[in-house]
Design goal:
- The complex is a heterodimer.
- Chain A is built from two helices and nine strands; from the N terminus they run αβββββββββα.
- Chain A is an alpha+beta fold.
- Chain A folds into two domains: about 40 residues; about 120 residues, Ctag/Cox11 (Ctag/Cox11 (Pfam 04442), Sandwich).
- The C terminus of chain A is likely disordered.
- The chains are: A alpha+beta, B mainly alpha.
Chain lengths: ~190, ~550
């Protein structure tokens, strides 16, 4: 009898452990995001606009900023940066454009996801305006200039001399349509 | 409860008699297929696991033959690239979840109750269930190969977005089969823990446990800790693919790199799940044939526990090239190298056990010695891969393929074969054919090195893994590798022959056929009676 009791206790502890670890697997998802954000390590830039206050522009230092634009394979657009690389001074407010052309004969909805390399530089790359904050809609064969206004934080570590901003454009026509209408109404 | 039934049996059964070979009379035993379907006997279930694992080993091996046949020449000749990818994927899944893990569970079922002086596993009905769901899992997985669009083709690691955005329609079947395999493993692990904690014979204290029992106890905890994480990972893949979630999809705010973190949080402890029981097997066989007690028993226990703990701190060494910050790469590099210390302790102890021993080289010992040498080679190539800067060159090349086949084939599988030869006399009551056992060993050990050693050079020269075609300069070495592969595959049919021959005939085995062997299982007659240790043995 005593053995059955202690078996039961141990089994329930082990099953609880297994269920707990199943939950832990899912808990890793928010944990991952929080850790990456706190440590600033996976190259994700802020998804909201930062405000630019007048600051001293560090003329003594030049940072190379490179732009890359990629499209996911099922996205029927052409997507290119206006300039592939530029030299900027930290603190300087810069405007550049990306160009998007819808090559298909249907209205398509896109979402650009930015990523900065090296990852530690992401926290110092501030965008006051970015097309990636919103979904982009292009009617058949239409094209658009997509603006990006950014500045590099003067606190950027000395070890980083080049920042690469890469956008991947995803086709979200199927899943993002309703959100897009709401977004348009709000605007 | 079943354990109370056993307690009741203790009172009515006479004291176990060494000469009594007909100990299996007190319950009307169903015959034929029903015996195997409804069995709750640890020995029957162990046998089922071992045969299932061997069938899966041959199935996964047949897929490896397809892979090596296609790679015999550059260019595409036998199979479509998509089918080639399905072969590499399913070969990996079957060998990991179908061959190695069930073989260890089978050995655990057969041996742990006999080694700790228990009448059976603690949870015999769950034991039946944890085995019998496995054939369904693999039937589902294998059937997906015959479906429109094919089976899983994204590698056994099923990285997103390969397994989400770009995967075949049959991916749901892959997910469910992994769920079932996971449930089976978790139930098996719970059974092992409860058996070891609660069913030890009086006097069998923790530091008297045979190392196979210790290593399996630690393995079982690893299984309970990480198999649920795997279940969670495949569930996320399932919902990303079919229900519009975005765990791993950047367009919806997810992150494909996170897949790798979660997967390898399971995946790295998983590789120790597949090697720790091997350490226990080798720690039983080496002393038996060296006729000396194991050198450094307690350091073996602590080394096993340290490896298990460290295994949770090294997962990102599989993903050095994903653009991690330098401090993380250094952390994971140093932690990985740290594992070499307890592993080195083990290898040192085995060699020290053999040192000045009165060694004889029967087949189990041959496999054990080959394990020590070849597993160490796999360990060293693992150390090379742990060095972050050089991993950037080795990553995703055949060097990695060579590394993990050295630790899994000449490591895990050689130890399983060593175990089979060592305990076959106890299981069947007959001695295996030593001549054919040795032929099996020598053909295997030569061909396995022809098969996997040149892969190191292919990898260093830059041949990527998981490709059906390759640059012509790799042709010669690939032909050598393929020939080694075919020879190794054929050699395993000798093993099948030896096992069947041993079951059917052969010299009658004594209770303890190996004069240097230690452990309670050898106090039982051979073959071990259907019910053993109904009365707990005395432990000195």
């Amino acid at each position: 009898m005593e053995k059955a009791e202690s078996n039961k206790k141990l089994i329930s502890m082990l099953i609880a452990g297994a269920i707990g670890m199943f939950g832990f697997g899912f808990a890793l998802v928010p944990l991952y995001d929080v850790l990456c954000e706190q440590l600033g390590i996976n190259g994700k830039t802020s998804s909201t606009a930062s405000s630019y206050q007048a600051m001293t522009i560090d003329k003594s230092r030049t940072v190379t900023v490179e732009f890359m634009a990629q499209i996911q394979s099922d996205m029927p657009w052409e997507f290119t940066p206006e300039m592939k690389r530029m030299q900027v001074h930290p603190g300087e407010l810069i405007r550049t454009n990306f160009k998007a052309i819808n090559l298909s004969t249907e209205e398509t909805l896109g979402q650009a996801i930015p990523s900065v390399s090296p990852g530690q530089g992401a926290a110092y790359f501030n965008k006051t305006e970015c097309f990636c904050f919103n979904q982009q809609r292009l009617t058949a064969k239409a094209s658009a200039e997509l603006p990006l206004i950014f500045f590099v934080d003067p606190d950027l570590p000395e070890s980083i001399s080049t920042l690469t901003l890469s956008y991947t454009l995803y086709n979200i026509t199927d899943r993002g349509y309703v959100d897009a209408i709401e977004q348009g109404a709000a605007r | 409860m079943t354990s109370t039934t056993h307690d009741a049996q203790d009172n009515i059964e006479p004291e176990h008699n060494q000469a009594d070979h007909h100990d299996d009379h007190h319950e009307a035993m169903p015959t034929g297929i029903k015996r195997w379907l409804f069995t709750t006997n640890h020995k029957d279930i162990g046998t089922l696991y071992l045969w299932f694992s061997f069938i899966m080993f041959l199935t996964g091996g047949a897929m490896a033959m397809v892979i090596r046949a296609e790679l015999f020449q550059p260019g595409l000749q036998l199979v479509e690239p998509n089918f080639f990818n399905q072969m590499t994927t399913v070969h990996g899944l079957i060998m990991v979840f179908g061959a190695v893990m069930p073989a260890f569970t089978g050995l655990a079922n057969w041996l742990i109750p006999m080694m700790i002086g228990a009448p059976d596993m603690a949870l015999p009905r769950m034991n039946n269930w944890s085995f019998w769901i496995l054939p369904f899992a693999f039937a589902i997985l294998l059937s997906s190969l015959f479906m429109e669009g094919g089976g899983p083709n994204f590698g056994w690691t099923f990285y997103a977005p390969l397994s989400t955005t770009y995967s075949p329609d049959s991916t749901a079947l892959f997910v469910f089969s992994v769920h079932i395999m996971g449930m089976s493993s978790i139930m098996g692990a719970i059974n092992v823990v409860v058996t070891i904690v609660n069913m030890r014979a009086p006097g069998m204290t923790w530091m008297k446990l045979p190392l196979f029992v210790w290593t399996w106890l630690i393995t079982a905890f690893l299984l309970i800790a990480v198999m649920p994480v795997l279940a969670g990972t495949v569930t996320m893949v399932l919902t990303d693919k079919y229900f519009g979630t975005s765990f791993f999809d950047a367009a919806g705010g997810g992150d494909p790199v996170m897949f790798q973190h979660i997967f390898w949080f399971f995946g790295h402890p998983e590789v120790y799940i597949m090697i720790l029981p091997s350490f226990g097997i080798i720690s039983a066989i080496v002393p038996a044939f060296s006729r000396k007690p194991l050198f450094g028993y307690s350091s073996m226990v602590y080394a096993t526990a340290s490896i298990a703990i460290l295994s949770f701190l090294v997962w990102a060494h599989h993903m050095f090239t994903t653009g991690m910050p330098v401090f993380a790469e250094l952390f994971f590099m140093y932690c990985t190298m740290l594992i070499a210390v307890p592993t080195g302790v083990k290898v040192f102890n085995w060699v020290a056990t053999m040192w000045r021993g009165s060694i004889s080289f029967e087949t189990p010992m041959l496999f054990a010695v080959a394990f020590i040498i070849l597993f160490t080679i796999g360990g060293f190539s693992g150390l090379m891969l742990a060095i972050t800067p050089v991993d950037f060159q080795y990553h995703d090349t055949y060097f990695v393929v060579a590394h993990f086949h050295y630790v899994l084939v000449t490591g895990a599988i050689f130890s399983i074969m060593a175990a089979a030869y060592y305990w076959l006399p106890k299981w069947t009551g007959n001695m295996y054919d030593e001549k054919w056992g040795k032929i099996h060993f020598w053909t295997s050990v030569i061909s396995v090195n022809v098969l996997f050693f040149p892969m190191h050079f292919l990898g260093l020269a830059g041949m990527p893994r998981r490709i059906p075609d390759y640059a012509v300069q790799f042709a010669d070495v690939n032909q050598i590798v393929s020939i080694g592969g075919f020879a190794f595959g054929l050699s395993q049919l000798i093993f099948l022959y030896v096992v069947i021959k041993c079951i059917r005939s052969g010299e009658k085995a004594e209770a303890k056929p190996w004069d240097g062997a230690e452990g309670l299982e050898w106090t039982l007659p051979s073959p071990a009676p259907y019910h053993s240790f109904s009365t707990p043995p005395e432990i000195k």
